[in-house]
């Protein structure tokens, strides 16, 4: 079946389509109904079915006689460790962790917050939670006390699993003091804290509350903890969005729909097969880490690489050396990581044998054409952009080569993925924009496919009001991204809806201007924001990082480069799109997940308060811009 028919069937014969996909996972009791959409926008997938995510990710592979195959490959260039766990070993470790969590009183439906560096115990803890029906909430280890405290308060965990420290570029980052401070700040207090001691940083323990994992694990070496069969709609986890646009939302995910969506995506999008190796360079603190470091690859019976470290340490060839060593077949990373590599010697991309690699998948942010071209040329392997959100849990737009091979188009993440009825709407009138070349808000018609968010944790009203009420006269899910579709059905994401700039009545996406600027050979990355202007309504302001800044020693040199860039934009997009200024900085403010914080740059440029900055990576990058514009 061609992809167009496959997609059409997923929408028009929804239940039959997903009933087939549901066979990719093991059910204890089969579902009675495929999709219960009786109270939109809430939908329930695979009602009546019972299953367990950990069983599907681990136990069933052991039961199928694959216990000796690799499951988890842990590589840390921070602590110089490499450790491989087979499916049987993983099963044993998960049961030990599950037994310890149970001994601390964790049961079905209880929340467990996981604040961990990229170590195997983090994955054990996630799998142990879903094994016993507990709901995990992983908080990225790079967050400090305030961000952590707000998530503790919202998720109200019974237990927090943490560690003494993480490590970044060889520098130890102590976690425990941040955790203690977060618990102090939070109105909710966990009953227990379970601590993995890596021997990196000293830890103060609070008696009665804090427990070391190692001795407890010793007590449960032979633990047999059966999988708790849960309803398909039972929440598997809560994960907060990246906070690029404001206060993070607690995305609540189900169990059955998620398992099915991941299993099918591994086959049809990520081209993964049991026995092969998958490498996602993300962090378990992000949705990509949940879906494509832990659950997706393991459900597919693949080995998954969990990597702690930077992409450029010991050198910029480290990732590719792992691809060669472990014969990685699918790899997943982010444009922000590629831009880091782009500042390094491209020879590293050619140093290793990458013939095992079917494709490098990239997601998380717009993939600009020069960056895509650079990495495609360097690796000589296919690059596949895919677009999705924490909320959806798996791709909305991609190329589904597992269904039917199709070409990628640079600058586009591809077509609507099966299961998603993706449409464009005029944000002011709610009119549906059909046909090619029309810009609108990217939205999804309900019911959302399996795997997507069920609701905002503890706040159904916020779920409905935030996502389903933003487009006039419609009950559709808004992505809050702005896009355009071409005549072949490929979408192009033009930026977030609040990143649209209105210059003298012309509506421009920041993305379009950024693309144009980054096509200059000496621009590594750039952020464009709209700034209020009394004459034109708004003007575009650009902040760029030069690839080679050695020539930018004085103002005259900067102005020369600025002039070149402006001319380029004018040639490519026209005079209206030409930014008012292009300023050169050494770094751009980003979230911890590597996304540009345009709203903060915009606020600073307009002399406003920068708002919630708890998820910012490097505050000095924003300060640089503040100093510049004042
Ligand atoms: P918050 O919702 O809290 O403001 P966030 O939107 O950054 O944070 P995520 O769910 O991590 O949180 O990111 C999803 C967003 O990332 C998308 O809505 C889109 O703006 C952007 N994005 C992801 N993948 C792509 C892609 N391939 N191309 C363009 N943009 C992408
Ligand atoms: Mg978002």
Please describe the topology of this protein.
Elements: H1 3-12, H2 14-21, E1 33-39, E2 42-47, E3 50-51, H3 53-66, E4 70-76, E5 81-86, H4 87-103, E6 111-115, H5 120-131, E7 135-138, H6 145-155, E8 159-163, E9 165-168, E10 171-174, H7 176-185, E11 192-196, E12 210-212, H8 213-219, E13 230-231, E14 237-240, E15 250-253, H9 256-268, E16 277-280, H10 287-299, E17 303-308, H11 318-326, E18 328-333, H12 335-342, E19 359-362, H13 369-379, E20 383-385, E21 397-398, E22 415-416, E23 422-425, E24 439-445, E25 455-456, H14 460-468, E26 476-485, E27 491-496, E28 500-503, E29 506-509, H15 510-518, E30 523-533, E31 537-546, H16 555-573, E32 581-584, H17 598-605, H18 619-629
Parallel strand pairs: 4-17, 6-7, 6-8, 8-11, 11-12, 16-17, 16-18, 18-19, 19-20, 31-32
Antiparallel strand pairs: 1-2, 3-13, 4-5, 9-10, 14-15, 15-25, 21-22, 23-24, 24-26, 26-27, 28-29, 30-31
Helix pairs in contact: 1-2, 3-4, 3-5, 3-10, 4-5, 4-8, 6-7, 9-10, 12-13, 15-16, 17-18
Bound molecules: adenosine-5'-triphosphate and magnesium ion.
Structural description of this entry:
Helices cover 32% and strands 25% of the residues. It is built from 18 helices and 32 strands. The radius of gyration is 24 Å and the shape is globular. It has 630 residues and is an alpha/beta fold. The mean pLDDT is 95. A seven-stranded mixed beta sheet has the order 5-4-17-16-18-19-20, with helices on both faces. The structure holds adenosine-5'-triphosphate and magnesium ion. Magnesium ion (MG) binds next to loops.
